Amino acid sequence: MKALIVILFIISFAYSHSILTTFDVPYGYITGLATDDHLVWAIDSITCSIYGFDGWAGTMEKSFPVIGTDSPVGLAYIDSLLYFAESGTAIMYAMDTNGGYIDSWDLSSLGVQSITGLGWEHADDRYDTGILIGDIGSHIIWKVYPFGSFTQADTLIVLPDTLVFHDISGGAYFAYGGCWIACESSNPYDRMQYWTESGFSNTAWYGFPSTCGVAQYMPYYWDHIWVSVPSELKVYLDWYGMGVEDDTTAMIDTGLQCSENPFSNCVVITLADSPDNATIRIMDITGRTILETPFYGSFSWIGESADGIYLSAGCYFASVILENGEVDSIRLVLLR
Fold first, then answer.
1. Which domains does the chain possess?
2. Predicted structure pTM score
3. Which helix H or strand E contains 8, and what residues bound it?
């Protein structure tokens, strides 16, 4: 846990950027993205379909028609349900991940005018977890809850009237109470913007040719976002990591080094001064220990757990715990 605290502290000072992967989408117009533990979900306003992709492999795993509207926008995933909206209205729908229709909600009585994007905000209190709604009519990012009834709407972010935007993400990278917003702009570096409750926070460091859908990569991958680029019929995974400029080989300024990062087959983790009685611990993004073993200055990891199971693509942490209790950590991105 100490290693995670160090990482969160450093993230406030230095950033790095990398496109980790991309995949093609069917001909159409992806107006919303969402993610679960396994798939990237996309909603298409032209084909009126919802697709589930293995984002790392670039393969479509699921496909079914949208039920409820012929002009769907926005997409959010929570508790095995996919939420989307009808463009130009305050109506939100839910379907399950097998294409079954669940319910709809008219949110106009709560102040919502014209939904263009959906995300979600996780909270420790289950009751306080809500769907984030990008409302182009009022230029407000609303938080609506509780799930099942959606009878309350709080104003989370007030956006400028001049900002034209599409889908939004949920969760947070810089801070809770914020989201990425896919925008229209003549400046390609302004087409992905991060806003918090206190206002504008940052823009993407990648010049997207166009944007429409955006989703955070799983609830706790705070520095990965999927971005749909309609002009290219592609979806990108953009990583805003830690380091200096675009150097992704040294995530944290410690003595730890890694042979390559991201990696797909094997990464060698080394420490310049060979330690005595040290331990290396590999953890996932939630802090769960994947494996732990003695460390003698160099360790080769092939993306396996302690019991020999190949891990899924994603973000992991390697921490070397020295005899005196000091911890050096480095962030690893595993590709598959």
1. 13-241 (2.120.10.30), 256-334 (2.60.40.1220)
2. 0.69
3. helix 2-10
